[in-house]
Amino acid sequence: DTGVSQDPRHKITKRGQNVTFRCDPISEHNRLYWYRQTLGQGPEFLTYFQNEAQLEKSRLLSDRFSAERPKGSFSTLEIQRTEQGDSAMYLCASSPSKGTDTQYFGPGTRLTVL
Amino acid sequence: GENVEQHPSTLSVQEGDSAVIKCTYSDSASNYFPWYKQELGKRPQLIIDIRSNVGEKKDQRIAVTLNKTAKHFSLHITETQPEDSAVYFCAASLYSSASKIIFGSGTRLSIRP
Q: Hey, which of A98, A108, B19, B65 would disulfide with A89, CB 3.0 to 4.6 Å?
């Protein structure tokens, strides 16, 4: 499968714990995006990387959230001190730097905070 | 910032009939409008997109229209089939910056046999 992959697909955690998600974009896609989707809503933008540089962050991304893309390939999203309101589907998408604006989504990581 | 409104939130049509989903956007600078289909438990998948230099685009049974003046765009599905049942999201973005996509709230389309 050469599409965007995410790991884990499901995560159940207790309130106050830290969690980390991983996204592997399509090979050679320079741009990587994180979105959050709650039930019955469209995806909401969280943050965006061009190669290893984090170029934009949403105000939704509180100081408990941090994202990295250290080598410009895979990315991680960490949530510290999880809250019940963090329960959502976390989607990753990638896009090539030239030729198209299409963003290709991964299958998502569903987070449940108890 | 950009805001995308989508209507209706749910839509039920008879198999074989047409379905229309309408969206409006607020930022006149937006110039890229993708539509995504999301089946239950699956990832959003791009079905069609349009850029602001084009008023209409068609791909088999799917067409999208764009009215830049009114800041409206619509998705039209003709000859609907059971596999068209899904949630559809419209979205807007600023193409030149490869920026974030702002999504509408989605339309749950059900096709009645």
A: A108
Is the backbone peptide bond immediately before B8 cis, with ω within 30 degrees of 0? yes
Q: Is B10 on the interface with A (CB under 8 A)?
A: no
SS3 category, B82: helix
Residue B8 token pair: 């209706």
The pairing of beta strand A104-105 with beta strand A75-79: unpaired
Residue B2 has a pLDDT of: 83
Residue-wise pLDDT tens digits, B27-42: 988 989 999 999 998 9
- Token duo for residue A95: 């896009």
Task: Please tell me the distance from the alpha carbon of residue B77 to that of residue B58, in angstroms, as a whole number.
Answer: 10
A25 φ, ψ (degrees, to nearest 5): -75, 175
The owner of tokens 């959003």 is: B44
CA gap B27, B10 in Å, rounded: 25
Residue with tokens 């990581």: A109
Integer Cα distance of A48 and A89 in angstroms: 17
Indicate which of B43, B54, B90, B103 best probes the interface with A, i.e. most A CBs within 10 Å of its own CB: B43
The residues, ordered by sequence, that sit 6+ positions from B60 with a Cβ below 8 Å of its Cβ are none
For A105, the closest of B43, B102, B106 (CB atoms) is B43
| Exposure string for A27-46, b = 16+ CB within 10 A, e = fewer | eebbbbbbbbbeeeebbbbb
Report, as an integer, the average pLDDT of A9-23.
98
Residues of A in contact with B45 (CB under 8 A): 105
